[in-house]
Specification:
The chain has 219 residues and is an alpha+beta fold. Helices cover 42% and strands 16% of the residues. The mean pLDDT is 82.
């Protein structure tokens, strides 16, 4: 029989085998494995790797919804990575050590999905903070923070950065209420303090442009 791997993440004891069993019950999943990755120091995350059945095209968000039916939030992988085939050892077992790094796959969008671009300075400013917090570049303004690797600790980190950069009070609960860049930015611009907010956005925009010019000169 299979020996379940027990890990402890953010205070929770988690059986990787239990998550894998639920993943394997998804009708479009042929093979699966769940591992713990710490590609940003101090930020351990569950990552699920799956290969699809012939002709199937499982989407990470759909797979997470499938898992949420039977598993608590701490057991939902921060990332679901779909690979055509999972690596195997010579004796036919899934090779956990042969799985790709998150950094090598986070820049790719599953199924060629379109990334919705930021449309104004506020969205661009928030987007840069998301990229900094999540450690990935391919983020669209309609992506749900919690579907692309976000979790409670990263929300706190992002909340702190947003207040610093935008120079205005922001309730932590707003990041849960508006989990996409578009919805969050929209909630801020409809706020009565939008004039003060714009000043913070303008300053952040000037800093970003200055940094880009320095990078261009360095290259």
């Amino acid at each position: 029989g299979r020996i379940d791997h027990q890990v402890k993440i953010r205070g929770y004891r988690i059986e990787l085998g239990e998550i894998e069993a639920r993943l394997g019950q998804h009708p479009d999943v042929r093979e699966c494995v769940v591992v713990v990755r710490e590609e940003t120091p101090g930020d351990q995350q569950l990552v699920g790797f799956v290969s699809p059945k012939d002709g199937a095209n499982p989407q990470p968000s759909e797979i997470k919804d499938h898992l949420r039916v039977n598993l608590p939030d701490p057991m939902i992988p921060g990332h679901i990575v779909v690979l055509a085939d999972l690596p195997h050892t010579p004796n036919g077992k899934i090779d956990r050590n042969g799985l790709p790094t998150l950094a090598s796959v986070l820049g790719q969008r599953d199924g060629g999905a379109v990334v919705a671009d930021a449309e104004n300075d506020l969205e661009r400013t928030v987007l840069e903070i998301w990229r900094e917090t999540l450690g990935m570049q391919a983020i669209g303004v309609d992506d749900n923070f919690f579907d692309i690797g976000g979790h409670s600790l990263l929300v706190v980190r992002m909340h702190r950065r947003l207040k610093e950069v935008l120079e205005r009070p922001i309730a932590l609960t707003e990041l849960y209420r508006y989990p996409t860049i578009r919805s969050f930015a929209g909630s801020l611009t409809s706020d009565a303090g939008s004039a003060a907010l714009q000043k913070g956005v303008d300053r952040a925009s000037r800093r970003r442009e200055s940094l880009e010019r320095r990078r261009a000169r360095a290259n």
